[in-house]
Fold:
Amino acid sequence: MMSNQKQHYHHGDLYKSLLDAATKLLREGGVEALSMRKLADRVGVSRMAPYHHFKDKNDLLCAIAEQGFRLQEGCLSECEVLPTAAALKTYVLTYIRFSQEHAETYDLMFGRDIWKTGVPTESLKQVSKVTFKRWLDWIERLQRERVLSADDSA
Structure:
């Protein structure tokens, strides 16, 4: 259900408010429905306010993808402290749930909009590489602990 109610930004973290609202707009209508103008209207700020945090729509999309990678890394951190076999099962289920519940963010993280047709920001490239490297390190640990076969590729 689309909401036409405008949020009014009064104080706090404008960057976070913009990211949250952009993520909701993305969920409601996809990449095509997201614009800087709609974002400003949704948050209740001037039409130029988002440009103080994001140079353009691509920059905003990259920030949403970065946020997704950070969430994914947080899930991995939570799973790593569980007993090993349970950790793997929990992580896989959490990963699948994330991809379903946050499909638009997941698509930005791994899909065409940024990586093939857009221009990933340096910070997005860095966050994605760090997250992937951490995941690979964990898979190698699971292989050493014989939870996964060493023949299984990451």
